What we know:
The protein is of the alpha+beta class.
Amino acid sequence: MRPSGRSFNEMREVSFETGVNRYAEGSCLVKFGNTHVLCTASWDESVPPWMRNSGKGWVTAEYNMLPRATHTRGRRERDKGPGGRTQEIQRLIGRSLRAVVDMQALGERQILIDCDVIQADGGTRTASITGAYVALRQAVEWAKSNGIIKNDPITDTVAAISCGLYNGSPVVDLDYDEDSSAQADANFVFTGSGGIVEVQGTAEGDPFSEEQFTTLLSLARRACDELTQKQKETA
């Protein structure tokens, strides 16, 4: 039995609320159970120096966890600089979104994604990716309606989910209680058309088998199909 009482293939309740930031061109408050992340997408009519005169745009992301997002207060990273975990997660978010954006169609401008974890209960990176796509979609629609771009640069949807082995059984969408004691955990990023963007998997003790990995992959694909549908209904 999972601590939450969910079945092995049951995600937490997922919701997307758009337009939660009046100033950002795109915004989404995504909730995976008790994990809540505010995602915003901002347009910038410039690109990084190394991309100038390339005719292509860029999508990048920053990730941050608010001080009291967890059981105990953490220091703001502005005081100590972004740690290795933060850098790894924000690079993952950026890679995931760039996988579904045509940089040529974007032109020489960039979209800046900010993912701020308001409350953490496991799966913050996967929630961030899934919510960031919705914010990105909103920002692109804003740009189209304001005549900034004519062609849609987004080529597909993208969503992410965590899976793992809890008490020896494969389960989907780990919360903190499961993640902190899982025998293995993995994060999967899929496009809406079924392409795999990234897989991160780690055994916390004994190695897990190829058969178990295949089961986790299957659980993740089904969950991301559901997330994709929810994204389309929202954005």
